Amino acid sequence: MTERLVEVGVNLEARPAALFVQAASRFKSHIELKTGTKTINAKSIMGMFALSTFASNSITIVADGEDEQQAVEELSGFLTNVS
Q: How many angstroms separate the CA atoms of 39 and 41, rounded?
Protein backbone atom coordinates (compact mmCIF):
# COMPACT_ATOMS: atom_id res chain seq x y z
CA MET A 1 0.00 0.00 0.00
CA THR A 2 1.25 3.45 -0.94
CA GLU A 3 -0.17 6.71 0.32
CA ARG A 4 0.62 10.38 0.04
CA LEU A 5 -0.82 13.53 1.56
CA VAL A 6 -1.15 16.26 -1.09
CA GLU A 7 -2.09 19.91 -0.96
CA VAL A 8 -4.93 20.34 -3.43
CA GLY A 9 -4.42 22.98 -6.11
CA VAL A 10 -7.59 22.19 -8.07
CA ASN A 11 -11.26 22.82 -7.45
CA LEU A 12 -12.86 19.35 -7.60
CA GLU A 13 -15.97 20.41 -9.46
CA ALA A 14 -17.55 18.49 -12.37
CA ARG A 15 -14.93 18.65 -15.13
CA PRO A 16 -11.78 18.22 -12.99
CA ALA A 17 -13.51 15.48 -10.99
CA ALA A 18 -14.43 13.60 -14.19
CA LEU A 19 -10.88 13.94 -15.52
CA PHE A 20 -9.49 12.68 -12.20
CA VAL A 21 -11.79 9.63 -12.28
CA GLN A 22 -10.67 8.88 -15.84
CA ALA A 23 -7.02 9.11 -14.79
CA ALA A 24 -7.58 6.91 -11.72
CA SER A 25 -9.50 4.33 -13.77
CA ARG A 26 -6.46 3.65 -15.96
CA PHE A 27 -4.71 1.99 -13.01
CA LYS A 28 -5.30 -1.57 -11.85
CA SER A 29 -4.76 -0.66 -8.20
CA HIS A 30 -7.59 0.09 -5.79
CA ILE A 31 -7.38 3.84 -5.15
CA GLU A 32 -9.05 5.83 -2.39
CA LEU A 33 -9.06 9.49 -1.44
CA LYS A 34 -9.33 10.50 2.21
CA THR A 35 -10.06 13.84 3.80
CA GLY A 36 -10.99 14.09 7.46
CA THR A 37 -13.27 11.14 8.19
CA LYS A 38 -14.51 10.83 4.58
CA THR A 39 -13.07 8.10 2.31
CA ILE A 40 -14.15 7.58 -1.31
CA ASN A 41 -13.27 5.33 -4.23
CA ALA A 42 -11.18 7.50 -6.58
CA LYS A 43 -12.68 5.70 -9.59
CA SER A 44 -16.22 6.77 -8.69
CA ILE A 45 -17.59 10.00 -10.12
CA MET A 46 -20.32 10.05 -7.47
CA GLY A 47 -17.68 9.63 -4.79
CA MET A 48 -15.73 12.54 -6.23
CA PHE A 49 -18.83 14.74 -6.16
CA ALA A 50 -19.40 13.76 -2.53
CA LEU A 51 -15.76 14.43 -1.70
CA SER A 52 -15.88 17.94 -3.15
CA THR A 53 -18.47 18.78 -0.49
CA PHE A 54 -16.09 17.71 2.28
CA ALA A 55 -12.74 18.53 0.68
CA SER A 56 -10.19 20.54 2.54
CA ASN A 57 -6.86 21.87 1.30
CA SER A 58 -5.28 18.45 1.67
CA ILE A 59 -6.27 14.95 0.56
CA THR A 60 -4.56 11.64 1.18
CA ILE A 61 -4.29 9.35 -1.85
CA VAL A 62 -4.11 5.66 -0.93
CA ALA A 63 -3.40 3.02 -3.58
CA ASP A 64 -3.06 -0.71 -3.19
CA GLY A 65 -2.09 -2.97 -6.09
CA GLU A 66 0.51 -3.72 -8.72
CA ASP A 67 0.82 -0.15 -10.03
CA GLU A 68 0.21 1.69 -6.75
CA GLN A 69 3.36 3.82 -6.77
CA GLN A 70 2.77 5.07 -10.31
CA ALA A 71 -0.89 5.75 -9.49
CA VAL A 72 -0.07 7.82 -6.41
CA GLU A 73 2.61 9.75 -8.27
CA GLU A 74 0.42 10.62 -11.27
CA LEU A 75 -2.73 11.38 -9.30
CA SER A 76 -0.79 13.54 -6.82
CA GLY A 77 0.44 15.60 -9.75
CA PHE A 78 -3.08 15.90 -11.07
CA LEU A 79 -4.43 17.25 -7.79
CA THR A 80 -1.66 19.76 -7.32
CA ASN A 81 -1.33 21.05 -10.91
CA VAL A 82 -4.71 21.10 -12.68
CA SER A 83 -6.63 24.34 -12.70
A: 7
Print the domain residue range for 21: 2-81
Rounded to 5°, the CA angle 59-63-68 comes to 130
Domain count, the chain: 1
CA distance 43 to 57: 20
Listed residue (59, 56, 33) closest to 44, CA to CA: 33
- CATH no. for residue 34? 3.30.1340.10
CA distance 37 to 69: 24
Task: Using a pLDDT cut of 90, give the percent of the chain over it.
Answer: 63
The pTM of this model reads: 0.89
